[in-house]
Amino acid sequence: MKKPFDTVLVANRGEIAVRIIKTLRKKGLRSAVVYHEVDAGTPAVAMADTAIRIEGRTPIAAYLDAPQIIAAAREAKAGALHPGYGFLSENAEFARSVAAAGIIFIGPSHESIELMGDKIRARNFVQRHGFPVAPSAIEEDDPQTFISRARRIGAPLLVKPSAGGGGKGMRVVRDLDTLEEAIAQARSEGLRYFGDGRLYVERYVEQPRHIEVQVLGDCFGNVVHLFERECSVQRRFQKIIEETPSPALTSELRQRVCETAAGIARAARYSNAGTVEFIFGQGEFYFLEMNTRLQVEHPVTEMITGIDLVAEQIDVAAGRELPFVQSDIVVRGHAIEARLYAEAPERGYAPTTGTILELEYPDGEGVRIDGGIQQGQSITTAFDPMLAKVIVHASTRDDAVLRAKAAIQDLLLFGCETNAAFLARILGDEGFRSGKVHTGYLDENPRLARGDEDPAALRRFLAAAALLTRPIREAADAIPELHAELGGWRN
Amino acid sequence: MIAPVIFSKHGVGRGILNLAGEALPVRFAIDGDTVHLHIAGQTRTVRYLDPLSTLAAANKEGDHLAARAPMPGVVVATRVSPGEQVAAGAPLMVIESMKLETVIRAPRDGFVDQVHVKDGDSFDRDAVLVTLSQEGR
Q1: Could you give the dihedral angle defined by the CA atoms of residues A175, A177, A182 and A185, in that order, rounded to the nearest 10 degrees?
Q2: In degrees rounded to 5, what are phi and psi of residue A258?
Q3: Is the ipTM of this complex over 0.90?
Q4: pTM of the model
Q5: Do A350 and B26 touch (CB under 8 A)?
Q6: In this complex, do A490 and B49 lie within 8 Å of one another by their Cβ atoms?
């Protein structure tokens, strides 16, 4: 079969650009990547066969500039474009413009992106096809009765802006007397963040777990699921650690959730890779939303199924039929992903910056690193703070947790403070090890972010630092006592 | 408790720390007065404060107090100008970092001495944003 394209433009940066280029190479395809000047020294630019510079008022604006990116694809003679995640990946207008330029968009149709892009439209679609959604009241249906319909659902309730995302403007109402006040606050936040004051209210699940299902469809109507991922360890609605299988599901529940996700994708005539997200609690699950792109945490699914999702995305976009049916996809072992961020959980997750002086990734059996940084590179606050993902696979969950913790501790990165110690604390925490996590887990355990000082560790650091720089300091000052030597140090 | 402490280098950026009977492999990088260390699965950066310059700075800041940046970011709005009298907790500046706005407040009562950055400027963590003095000028 003749290939419909031999060059793919990667319209992204960082670790995901590297990840996509690796699969393009494996498949014998040429890779092109766009980059803003600040990313000139990154591995994605070095690895791609062609790198095309794009410009913008800010670095982020460059990666959001659709006409410039399409022009770059033409310049690189790319027959297809992979959007990665974030940036323009879920922009229906962009998908349409790419197709109009005669370039294959590696992702679902723009109709699918549009359907799932609006939370209320997606929710109504899912409900109409008989899949579970949380009991809810949508203001637009009849603004006059909105509050009375919301009251009828009963507490606890979650008030959300219709145009929302990232948890902004959401409010939990446990006492119905405060409902009107919460609605007023959510409306003003919705207007401020999204320029849209429309709201909806739904049943709030206490101690909810975030469980999502990977689906894959082709243009021939075949849809399969690749099982679930649990992403309940979150800070400010940002995922930190993801795993599969979920320790919360029985095999019967797993089957129900996964088949529901595949059913939703089938009903939407979905092609390419997508993720159906659910809220799970008290044995019940509700549709939350569908992400019409590759997810950050897709590698854990690849680890347990042995399927390269990017390779499947490319083949489906090229018009091929899925090479497997549902019964061919089997789960092997357990996989965990931990996200390495340039931030300090100890200081309220404040972003950190610096220049990478030294970088050495852990290796060994069952360890995979998806990274987008290299030695000498500056870490700035221009982009999302994610530096790399540490992904591990083992035969059992217990072994995977141990392996993940060891890999995080072996990772060597000097020059920019990271959340590595925090990740190791979570992986060593009894709550996480027993699998009893929910989306409020980190808020309920602030000590995990805070990181209580270990005096023995501090002594080791100070002793090593003092001894390593003795010649320099002896020239600078002449205070002989050990205590005085240590006294000049701070961290 | 007195225990022998020995550090022996083995190659570039590697060594062994012997402390209280433990022998620990150490990875390190030295960058000016900053030492980056990786010991027993943990990474930490320590900075040497020269006692003389620390003392000098303390004297200089005697009646000048600085409001510093808690994190790297960009100035969104400046709320005060030099000479203005402020009370402890008064907003001095709004900064943005990773899409989050933070208000920088006066650490104590005083007069604005200098505003060191202007709207749109970016800065690193610990940068001096506004200095206050006890007496007006």
Answers
A1: -150
A2: -65, -40
A3: no
A4: 0.85
A5: no
A6: yes
